[in-house]
Amino acid sequence: MQFDDFESYVKDGLSKIYDYALLESNPLVKDNILPINKFPDSKGKYLRAILTGSIESLKPVEKEYDLNALEWRTYIVLNKRYIEGLNSIEIARLLSISERQYRRYLKRAINSISQRLWDQYQVNNVQVHIDHQEIPTNQVFSVVWEQVDLVNITKGVVNLLSNRIEQKKIKYNFQDPIAPVLVKSDRVILRQILIDLLNNLIHFSSDNITFSFQEKEIEKSLIISSAISNTEFSLLDTSKDDNENSLNYWSEKLNINLEENFSDIPNIIEIRLSFLEKEQKTVIIVDDQEPALRMFTRYFSRTNLKIIGLSKGTKVLSKAKELQPALILLDIMMPKMDGWEVLQSLKLDETTKNIPVIVCSAWGEPELAKSLGAVEFLRKPVRQRDLLAAISKIGILD
Length: 398
Description:
The chain is α/β, with parallel strands linked by helices. Helix content is about 45%, strand content about 20%.
């Protein structure tokens, strides 16, 4: 498949994002270009989840919302146009730009989201009419780490299920914390976990549902409690621990500890989701070109890795000794001390010799890189999916 065709399918899907019937006829899902594996709903809902999740993935991490900031423009244009349904005049006025500028932003934004999906699903390697049962689930739903507000996420899910809650005549209330409860997670997967939990809880709830939040030093929790009509069931079915669609499977992926507690008098169930602050692994990126450092940092922006950029080879050994990183990405062509000298110094030092090093260079010397101790060689320009595949292979990504 050519990228231009793929991009046109993405654009068509975005324009019909609220019409499940039309989405089901989009070649992205009709021909399994975006492979579906055990998705519990229709193809239309699957495509919508993929597209909305991709738009959310463009939201700058840990950056204050700013209409005038360039890094926010791609997300804002896509969100306002396709999620909120604003027209071109309204968006142009909101951003204080001309309609012509808006169209340029939109074109670049669609290209950006298409490129992300293309890379994520490795579309150029996917053949039409693949048996989707052969596609591993983790290729379809990969964890995209970002900082999210647990309170807002929970309220959004409750709002989504509000009709069903009202039909069951169940009341609900939030014990709101003073400040936002920020956790590192995947917004789309977390929402699905909460949707599954609440859907099951609503079925058995007999009175009301209370949502409360707790914060400790290294742990933040959401507590959902309700009076129930039947205590002989479990929302957390551990018999499905190996099932890629189970709550336990995805909770583990997101470092969420799930607990279920019952109180007989009255019949109260309490579900606790505890978000554990997992220690971040550090990656040192060594490149004397600032654009390259920014590119690699952007490649890692949706992972749970801490990135340290260095532009001088002379500083690498001391920094590696100090930080003991999980990985070093190393450029070769640098002034004063080139990458080969850096690699040799790392491998000759007892405290750094076991740190994995990936050499990234336009000069094709993979044999030399590996003979000097590098675990991998990537030719520049490095593609994001090739880099993530390389670090996954050596166990850097969880």
